[in-house]
């Protein structure tokens, strides 16, 4: 299997893991903007799904606002992130079916592990899932 490698800063990784822990029963979600393919800024977005404990849906107005802020900051979409409070950090069938940004990384944070948070990255295109290697940088 061909895997790509992407780097995430310790700051962004810590933010995502912290926000996931603050919402242990509902999925968190948002976007990450990048410059020169380097993740720069997290844009948390409210999850307005009907069942946020098992699904995420980015609030449309906040998503549009986040894209506008990225454009103003000369950033591009790097990743779409969400958490899985009770399941593994792998895309669900719904995650795969609804993936609409094939160039973005889909980051999933799992709270389903005992005492250890797990975060994994994927590229999802045409319902095909590719595992992405994430490396932590300072």
Sequence of secondary-structure elements? EHEEHEHEEE
Biggest sheet, spatial arrangement of strands = 1-7-6-5-4-2-3
Q: Note the overall shape.
A: globular
CATH topology name, in short, is Cytidine Deaminase, domain 2
The biggest sheet amounts to: 7 strands, mixed
CATH architecture annotation: 3-Layer(aba) Sandwich
Low-confidence stretches are: none
Percent strand equals: 35-45%
Query: Approximately how much helix is present in the residues?
Result: 10-25%
The Cα radius of gyration reads: 14 Å
Structural class: alpha/beta
What is the count of distinct domains? 1
Overall pLDDT score? 92
Structure description:
The chain has 138 residues and is of the alpha/beta class. The protein has one domain: Cytidine Deaminase, domain 2. It has three helices and seven strands; from the N terminus they run βαββαβαβββ. It has a seven-stranded mixed β-sheet with strand order 1-7-6-5-4-2-3. Strand 5 and strand 6 form a beta hairpin. The mean pLDDT is 92.
């Amino acid at each position: 299997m061909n895997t790509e490698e992407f780097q995430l800063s310790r700051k962004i990784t810590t933010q995502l893991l912290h926000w996931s822990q603050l919402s242990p029963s509902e999925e968190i979600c948002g976007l990450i903007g990048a410059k020169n393919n380097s993740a720069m800024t997290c844009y948390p977005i409210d999850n307005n799904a009907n069942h946020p404990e098992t699904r995420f849906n980015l609030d449309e107005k906040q998503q549009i606002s986040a894209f506008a802020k990225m454009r103003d900051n000369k950033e591009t979409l790097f990743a779409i992130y969400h958490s899985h409070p009770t399941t593994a950090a792998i895309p669900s069938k719904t995650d795969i079916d609804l993936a609409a940004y094939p160039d973005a990384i889909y980051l999933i944070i799992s709270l389903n592990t005992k005492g250890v948070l797990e975060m994994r990255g994927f590229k999802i295109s045409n319902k095909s899932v590719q595992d992405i290697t994430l490396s932590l940088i300072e």
